[in-house]
Amino acid sequence: MGGLGAPEIILIIIAILLLFGGKKIPELMRGLGKGVKEFKDAQNGESSSSSEDKPKV
CB neighbours of 20 closer than 8 A, spacing ≥ 6? Predict the structure, then answer.
């Protein structure tokens, strides 16, 4: 009960494309990825500024 099948997922994807447009979706995903990364870093006790201050080798 309550499972999502392939037709439901396709309809959801089409609705998202219609609402946001094809050009806006990569920006939304990039922002979502940054948010998830910051959340994981905060859970691990790491500061985002400390990872940026490390010298690149």
Answer: 28
Write down the pLDDT at residue 54.
56
Q: Write out the E strands in 1-57.
A: none
Q: What is the pTM of this model?
A: 0.48
Query: Is residue 48 within 8 Å of 41, Cβ to Cβ?
Result: yes
User: Which amino acid is present at 7?
Assistant: P
- Element (H or E) spanning 7, and its range? helix 6-20
What's the CA gap between 47 and 6, in Å, rounded?
40
Residues 7 and 22: their CA atoms lie apart, in Å, by: 20
